[in-house]
Specification:
The protein has four helices and no strands. The chain is mainly alpha-helical. The protein starts with a helix and ends with a helix. The relative contact order is 0.14.
């Protein structure tokens, strides 16, 4: 059974919904997520971090990385 068309449709719908968020809502959500991650023991105790550059409305982790 090929699930690719269904997965692709869900992916596109998720991207569209994310991009439709007002900037202030997206910014507040980014800040909240960064705070939650920064509070985790595994983050605070990590010696190495792997991150990505946000693209197309993805979660912006730049605040979190600046704290690291």
């Amino acid at each position: 059974m090929d699930h690719f068309p269904q997965k692709e449709a869900q992916r596109k719908a998720g991207i569209a919904a994310r991009r439709a968020l007002p900037d202030e809502v997206r910014s507040a959500a980014n800040a909240a997520l960064c705070r939650r991650i920064a509070a985790l023991d595994c983050f605070r105790n990590a010696r190495t971090l792997l991150a990505y550059a946000a693209f197309g409305g993805e979660v912006d982790l730049s605040t979190l990385l600046a704290e690291a």
